[in-house]
Amino acid sequence: MGRESIKERIEFLRSEIERHDRLYYVEARPVIGDRDYDLLYEELLKLEREHPEFHSDSSPTQRVSGEPLSGFAQVRHNPPMQSLDKTHSKGELADFDAMVRKEVDGFTYNVEPKVDGVSMSLFYEDRRLVRAATRGNGQVGDDVTLNVKTIRAIPLRLPPSAPESLEVRGEVYMTRDGFVKLNEREEESGREPFANPRNAAAGSLKLLDSKEVANRPLDIVIYNAGGTGCEGFSTHSEMIETFRYWGFPVTPWSKTCATMEDVYAAIDELETLRHTFRFEIDGAVVKLNERSLYDVLGATAHGPRWARAYKYAPERAETVVE
Ligand code: IVH
């Protein structure tokens, strides 16, 4: 094979593996078996080893790479990663709606799951993932790029239709199934099990050896714009659909609501569905759908005035002793 065709073959293998990762990890509808996937992966590994001149940090083989770190660098968030004001009753949500209606009109709401995980910022330059950072104190977080690259649902490259520079924000979580299996392994090894999937996700992201993180069943849901690349979207729902199109995992369930009655119904429906998701949820998030109104509403010290969290009653695991 000549140099050009080797380069082309490497690019073909990378795109194919990306496509299959997306089908398997994001869309849950794989089209090839493990054996065929492994053949593509092994061929790519071999060609990259023989031709280091074609190395790329965004290659699927680079999801697990690098030596253990001694600590995490700090990343400043621009804009800061805010929190959400919480409500615990429909009455409090009605107050929120009244506040919004005093300032703006002609809008709808979006109701979506409040994923119980660890907030994360993903930054893409030249459509390649260059940085992943935790929320930290909102102003400054930890650079956990190497750990986050191991999450196979996260695209390392974006399609040409995506902006060159893009920041998106979401929640890294540990799958329910994966959490149970991880805790079994922890107990078998004589270690203390994790209290819940959120602690397990947070603990995994803090590991200094990304090879260990690669064995943790982590995933992500992207639900918000970062500071760069999302200026053009007029509605939240359009933005989320576009994120999906660019290859990001987004919420499997959301409702656009014209009235507060619809919002309450959506919140109740979501609560009945909470056990059907791969992630734990601790509530719903109600967001204005029209992004052009966000600047009008602004933010408080705690969070944006265009969104509210609605917390469900905490779940208690019940054991029936027979
Ligand atoms: S939007 C300005 N959407 O909940 C903050 N946050 O308790 C906008 N969270 O810090 C965030 N699911 O980490 C948003 N669907 C969702 C969410 C969500 C979970 C987290 C987020 C936030 C925390 C606030």
Overview of this structure, please?
The chain is of the alpha+beta class and 322 residues long. Helix content is 35%, strand content 20%. The protein is globular, with a radius of gyration of 21 Å. The termini are far apart. The mean pLDDT is 95. It binds 2-(butylsulfanyl)adenosine. The site of 2-(butylsulfanyl)adenosine has 15 residues, from strand 3, strand 8 and strand 11.
- Mean pLDDT across the residues is 95
Q: What Rg do the Cα atoms give?
A: 21 Å
Assigned CATH superfamily of the largest domain: DNA ligase/mRNA capping enzyme
Largest sheet: 5 strands, mixed
Question: Keywords for this structure?
Answer:
alpha+beta; Helix Hairpins; D-amino Acid Aminotransferase, Chain A, domain 1; 2 domains; 10 helices; 11 strands; globular; binds 2-(butylsulfanyl)adenosine
In short:
This protein is of the alpha+beta class and 322 residues long. Helix content is 35%, strand content 20%.
Layout of strands and helices, then pairs:
Elements: H1 3-26, H2 34-50, E1 74-76, E2 86-87, H3 90-103, E3 109-115, E4 118-125, E5 128-134, E6 140-142, H4 145-149, E7 166-174, H5 176-188, H6 197-205, H7 210-213, E8 218-225, H8 236-245, E9 255-257, H9 260-273, E10 281-288, H10 294-297, E11 307-311
The structure holds 2-(butylsulfanyl)adenosine (IVH).
